[in-house]
Amino acid sequence: MIRPARSEDVPTILGLIRDLAEYERAAHEVRATEDDLLRSLFGPEPKVFAHVAELDGRVVGFALWFLSYSTWLGRHGVYLEDLYVSPEARGKGFGRALLAELTRIADQRGYGRVEWSVLDWNAPAIGFYESLGARPQEDWTVYRLTEDTFPSLTRD
């Protein structure tokens, strides 16, 4: 079962985020708290959204996403920040169902795309995404400024 996340799912979602970060060899980078997620997902004007996958009434996966925008298409899109299904629930169709739900949302709302990033060494994820028809975007490299670099850019 796939459904929109509820506030009571936040502790489980945070646990899954930590599991994902550990898998991606970056557990030390997780700073998010339950309060951060509650505020982001369920505050007065949420700008980020989540759907969860349930197995026997227990959350076993999630997709966390927000709106993007394409000036070339002149329309919004969905940017999938994280997609994660716990190891014991993999192979049961939850990842596909989560992506299908985001695709349905994008289609119903007239959005132009659903996109995400994947680590280049994550062969199982790449294989899964390509099996669904997703293709890598050639010639594009992701760049990032972080709060550690903000001061050098914002100084007068």
From TrEMBL:
Give start and end of each N-acetyltransferase domain.
1-156
Q: Which superkingdom, per the lineage?
A: Bacteria
UniProt xrefs under Pfam families:
Acetyltransf_1
- Signal peptide, first to last residue: none
Instruction: Please give the Gene Ontology molecular function terms for this protein.
Output: N-acetyltransferase activity
- CDD domains attached to this UniProt entry: NAT_SF (cd04301)
PROSITE patterns, from UniProt? GNAT (PS51186)
What UniProt keywords apply to this chain's record, in alphabetical order? Answer: Acyltransferase, Transferase
Record has Transport as a keyword: no
Q: Does the keyword Acyltransferase apply?
A: yes
Q: Please give the InterPro entries that the UniProt record associates with this protein.
A: AcTrfase_GNAT_prd, Acyl_CoA_acyltransferase, Diverse_Substrate_AcTransf, GNAT_dom
Q: What family is this?
A: Belongs to the acetyltransferase family.
Q: Which PANTHER family match?
A: DIAMINE N-ACETYLTRANSFERASE (PTHR10545), GH14572P-RELATED (PTHR10545:SF29)
What is the protein's name according to its record? GNAT family N-acetyltransferase
